[in-house]
Amino acid sequence: MVEVIAKFLRENKIAKELTDKTIVYESHVRRFWNSARYEEKEKMIYSAVRKRDENGQDVDLEIKFNVGDLRRVLELGDSDNDPTIIPEHLCKGLWCRMGFTGHINGKMGKTMLCHSYKFMIHCVVHALSHRKGAYDETSDYIMNIITFLVLNRP
């Protein structure tokens, strides 16, 4: 069964995000968000990244991008019209159909599922979560990602 879930993860919409080996340093992320600003009129995010020029000097380079750029680079294959969240009762209902045995209104931990779903959630949490620990618990947005994956929705 784990082989089936592994194949499913390799072939789904977020396969690139699950398998990307890019190393992201916390200092780079912090520097990016400390200088980031959102322009509502243009619907763009502006920030600065540090880059070495041809003389070996560090220079700040301003970058700008929007949601469409993120979708294109991450190869998500979705659009602005696709939902980003579904009602909590639908997520919890799906988790029950997946065999979740824990308390449905408590913390949704992956330990309360069969091995194949546990493996899938483990992959998603490690690849897409910004956590440094507590990998057994799933947050609301991870629950939504799992739900969309299982239902094969964008």
Structure characterization notes:
Helix 1 (2-11) runs parallel beside helix 6. The longest helix is centred in the C-terminal third of the chain and has 14 residues, at 115-128. The chain has one domain (2-150). It is 44% helix and 13% strand. The chain has a three-stranded antiparallel beta sheet with strand order 1-2-3. The protein is an alpha+beta fold and 154 residues long. The model has no long low-confidence stretch (mean pLDDT 80). The protein has helices spanning 2-11, 15-19, 26-35, 67-74, 88-97, 115-128, 140-150, and strands at 37-39, 44-52, 58-65. The protein is elongated, with a radius of gyration of 18 Å.
Give the helices and strands, then pairings.
Layout: H1 2-11, H2 15-19, H3 26-35, E1 37-39, E2 44-52, E3 58-65, H4 67-74, H5 88-97, H6 115-128, H7 140-150
Antiparallel strand pairs: 1-2, 2-3
Helix pairs in contact: 1-6, 5-7
Kindly summarize this structure in a few lines:
This protein is 44% helix and 13% strand. The protein has 154 residues and is an alpha+beta fold. Helix 5 crosses helix 7.
Strand content: 5-15%
Mean pLDDT: 80
* Percent in helix: 40-55%
What is the SS-derived class?
Answer: alpha+beta
The tally of domains stands at 1
Q: How would you describe the shape?
A: elongated
Question: Strand tally, please?
Answer: 3
Provide the gyration radius in Å: 18 Å
- CA-CA gap between termini: 24 Å
What is the helix tally? 7
Biggest sheet record: 3 strands, antiparallel
How are helices and strands ordered from N to C? Answer: HHHEEEHHHH
What is the oligomeric state here? Answer: single chain
Low-confidence stretches: none
How would you write the strand order of the largest sheet? 1-2-3
